[in-house]
Design brief:
7 helices; alpha+beta; five-stranded mixed barrel
Length: 240
């Protein structure tokens, strides 16, 4: 059908001509979509404010050859006003959207959509450290993409006490079976990764600052390895 409707989160916008805008949407059922929103930069536009990053919308689109066209927009949630008011939250949220754009260009799912929405909601609530919400999002998004291996057992001998994480394979290992490119995090570090993946926030909060920073570095390195280049926005994220 030429027209279709879906829920979406706005992950990027670009100016087009004098009054139009290209919006990149991560939809719930149709993956990543790039569409033209006509006339939204006019002061009289009623939908321009609904198509800003960090906004979740119910959108109707007309299918085109290269770019779709936005027909109707209803705002479902707007996390932008809270997010942009705090630098640490804003930089983390920007990294979430940049990662989402990169990870869903070729393939996506409703899980990726819900994960992004959940990360933005969590950042807006400010109940946990913004950088830890970001790391949790990145690990879960990588896991959905199939890039996180078993974290409970050493990839070599099957030991249930892994201490190192490979930034090349996503596998964990014990001291005797460490792979090239592995980072020794200790049992606390591996446990912290597991807590971030499962959303065990009491355990995340109990981790030391040293462990959190070490794991953040590993997550960034592993993401860069999988994407073949890093995220620009990660350079600006404030770490606790």
């Amino acid at each position: 059908m030429p027209h279709y409707r879906d829920e979406a989160v706005v992950i990027r916008t670009h100016k087009l001509g004098e009054v139009d805008r290209i919006v990149t949407l991560l939809t719930k059922n149709n993956g990543q979509v790039r569409a033209v929103a006509k006339g939204v930069r006019k002061t009289s536009s009623r939908i321009g404010a609904r198509l800003e990053p960090f906004t979740v919308v119910d959108v109707q689109l007309y299918q085109g050859r290269t770019l779709d066209t936005v027909s109707q927009v209803e705002q479902l949630s707007n996390y932008g006003s809270v997010i942009i008011a705090d630098y640490a939250t804003y930089t983390a949220a920007t990294a979430v959207l940049e990662a989402a754009e990169r990870l869903t260009r070729e393939d996506s799912s409703s899980q990726q959509f819900m994960l992004v929405v959940g990360a933005l909601r969590a950042l807006s609530l400010k109940e946990n450290a913004s950088d830890q919400i970001l790391d949790s999002y990145l690990l879960r998004a990588l896991a959905i993409s199939g890039w996180i291996a078993n974290l409970e057992n050493c990839q070599g001998c099957g030991s249930d006490s892994p201490v190192a994480f490979s930034v090349h394979t996503g596998a964990v290992s014990c001291t005797s079976c460490m792979l090239p490119g592995s980072v020794r995090l200790g049992e606390e570090g591996i446990g912290h990764i597991e807590a971030l993946l499962s959303g065990d926030w009491p355990s995340v909060t109990r981790s030391s600052s040293k462990t959190r920073k070490a794991v953040s570095g590993v997550v960034s390195a592993y993401l860069q390895w999988q994407l073949e280049r890093g995220l620009r926005s990660l350079e600006h994220v404030e770490r606790s």
